[in-house]
Amino acid sequence: MAEVLFNNKGIPLMASGRTFMADTSGAPAYDPKTITHVSPDLDETVSVGNNKVVAWGSGNNFPQEAEKLIGKTGVLNTGLKFIHRFTIGQGIFPCRVTGYDADGNEQLEVVNDEKITAFINDRKVRRYLHNAARDYFKFGSAFPELIPSADAKQLVGIDVKNALYARYLEKKNGIIPGVVVSGKWPDSPSERKDYSVVPLLDNYDPYADLERYRLLNKLSGQTFIYPLRDEWSNNEYHPLPIWWSAKLAGWIDIANKVPSFLIKMYENQITLKWHVQIPYAYWEKKYPEKDFKSVKERKDAIQKEMDTIEESLTGTENANKALFSMFEMNPNGKVEEQWIITALDDKTKANDQLITSAAANSEICFALMINPNVFGAGMPGGTYAGNQGGSNIREAFLVNVALAWLDRQTLLDPLEMILQYNGWTNVQLRFRNTLLTTLDTGAGTTKTLS
Please, which pLDDT band fits residue 183 given cuts at 50, 70 and 90? Predict the structure, then answer.
């Protein structure tokens, strides 16, 4: 039975059986308008009770499909985790900006208030940073949840609704009123117990919106979503994640197809290294029929010697090992009983596929704004060649840290709003970083604040 590898549109890409391998070429005859693509920017709606919910993708399953795609694409998964790690750095600390030096750098004064320090170092805040950054980079959106106290005088907690199970309500008067949270997505929940509706703070001024709820006495007993979005996308609901351009360009598909191709190639290929030609006269002279009681006994003896010959030509332990054979010249000067051993050219080489895979990995890194050399993925030659030295890696990492400011501030906004609402005014949050340095500085690392 043949195994057929399909793409996500149901088009066969390659097929293999015990003795053959096939792939497809050319363009399929279909109308592109009839094909459903997984896309994050289709604003279709689905009904949930009396609510109209904006579908996240053509099948309302974009985060679920994106999660699968990330999980099976090694360089994409590792690249996103790398961004996640250097963005969070070594945690955050509270401070005040007291001024700026001549180079424009902030002059910071650490805030040693016990209550603020306890809040910042609380596991809930660390968990918030971890989960919010995860969804923000994977899917382009995160859904932090602010939790007020029973008397609504303070915000006492922060959580993150898993983006896999969060969908925006359709806009009313130009404002998205809330988020529907359900473990049933991408299927629409049919019963009220299967979903909850959490109010969404206005993205323009979340603090003012929260104050409005407080003045209307609607804060107590209610939680609120503080939306985080990658604002590079112009979509009103679901922004494109940073890596999506590599998907649209096809590089992620290539990165995943190369291993499948290689597996099929190795499973189905017949690799013959040597062609050994032995004259019939050799067997007649060494194993004459008269010396054996039966044909089977003679066949077994010949088979045993052929196995010995094969063992001598194959295996790592036999590398560079010599094989001796003898022949004679008849009275007419013709060679008799000469063995001929010919090395066969292996037509199934994987080098081209590995180069293609390396190019795909580099393109995915470029989409993530990561220098491939940071992963030791610089190619030794050709278009994507790069210096993999320590200085190059350090500089690439420094560029990533410098570019992380906007994403870091996005992650800090809900925490700084909590500080402000709770009366801890004039307090800012900053990230700590550990940066690699050269040995001539006398230290392997240095601490910086950003």
Answer: very high
